[in-house]
Amino acid sequence: MNFLYDRFFKNKTSIFIFSFVLFSIGAFYISFFPPDEPKYVDAALRMIEKGNYIVPFFNCHVRFDKPIFFYWELALFFKIFSIDHLIKIGHDYFGLIEYAARLPAIISASLSSVYVYKLSDLLFKDNDISRLSVLGFISIGFFVYLGRSVYPDMSLILFELMGLYYFIKERYVLGWVFAALASLVKGPIGLVSVGFTYFIYLWIVEKKTGLKEFFSLKNGLGFLAFLLIGLPWYVAIYHNYGMEFINKFLIYHNIERFTGAAHQHPHSFFYFFPIAILVLYIWWPYILQLLKKVDLKDRKNLFLILWFAWVFLFFSISRNKLAHYIAFGFIPVAVLFGRYIKEVKESKEISYGFLIFEVVLSFVLSYIAYKRGLIQIVSSIFAGILIISLTNLIKKPTRVIFYKTIAISVVAFVILLQFEGYRPDKFVWHEVLKTRLELLQYKKFNQSFVAYTRMCMNEIKNPEVIEKKKGVFLVYTKLKYLKELRINYKVLAKFIDEGTKTVLIEVENE
Hints:
With 510 residues, this protein is α/β, with parallel strands linked by helices. The protein has helices at 2-8, 12-24, 36-50, 69-80, 83-89, 96-124, 127-139, 141-146, 153-168, 172-186, 188-206, 211-214, 217-241, 243-259, 272-278, 287-293, 299-317, 331-340, 348-371, 375-390, 397-419, 425-435, 447-453, 463-468, and strands at residues 57-58, 61-62, 439-442, 459-460, 471-478, 489-497, 500-509. It is built from 24 helices and 7 strands.
């Protein structure tokens, strides 16, 4: 087993290759997760269908939520793998549709592994610390998930990390280039994250104000590069939509979501505290030892801690939150892990204690799945978590973390693959292709149907719309709402959609 561990960390090339393979586990065939993943997929496909690569559309409406770059990444891989054609014909036996959509995240996560190595090496000039920082990175829950998801956040984190790295290296033009790409992925936060973190580095590590660096010629050339790369799309979209774009994108999705004027994902100030603990699950047996090892007087440690702290505090203050918003703040946590994990001592008591904990967890989660009617995946949950628990018997904490990360990735993929049998996304997609019937959604809206079927649709809330509609058509709704519809129908299939029992019916109204 040590062969795989040693090969992973041999050099930057092997780190990229093994990271790519690791993040590819679970990226095939698993249907897109509503509400957000299908929105990005649909928007990229409509770019290809319309030949319009400036304005993103979801469900036939302009989507101002995010800037353009992530859509371009998706469109590129969709073109390479002819995903628009595969979706139209309904044949995708190898899960290429989902894999192509997740490739930007997979590649970004793999490159991030390399740049975590490079950043750690830049700070500490120690090959072991750099390699173990990569281990910290791949084992943090945020990156386990974001590295194989259809979200722009992994691309954002990569460009933020690259921008910061090149600023610290005083290669300002490259730093500004990647800050521009970050701002094209997710807006102003890309520039703010790079700039503020770099100034913290200057203040804490270099003991500089940053004024000399800011007014240097190289920095001025870099800012020009930022404008040349980052500005044209914003100018083009403003030219087409004017204040509608400013009001929707800049004011609503950035300012009002931060201040709370827009109630999209409202959560309390303490929302991220349990999340921060949960995403470090793989480190739990060693977390107390790690915290005790950190030297708070070391300026580089202080820089890493302040980097984490400002990201955590900034998004905690924000009134609207999603769990992965603070993921960029866990890059320095990974580097601190790399610096001190070798000093953590192995403890048989902790190892056996955590093994028992995970064995108990396998029983609990299996029972919950059974009670919810997920009979097909009960055995996979039970056996999978038991396999994960056995990694606690491996000697050395670094190897436990490495193999547990792989085990969790494989087990999660197997469970999700079996759970596909309960999900409606692909069944509905193939039923629409087979029957060529119109699909209506009643008091339930699954965004994946828009992406897969290439139909634009709305959630219908008035039963009379369905009752008065003539002809044969499909209706997707929650199982409990069938009693509200006075129609002739036959049930085609039942599903579990976001924890709710749903049904697809075929309606024939004369």
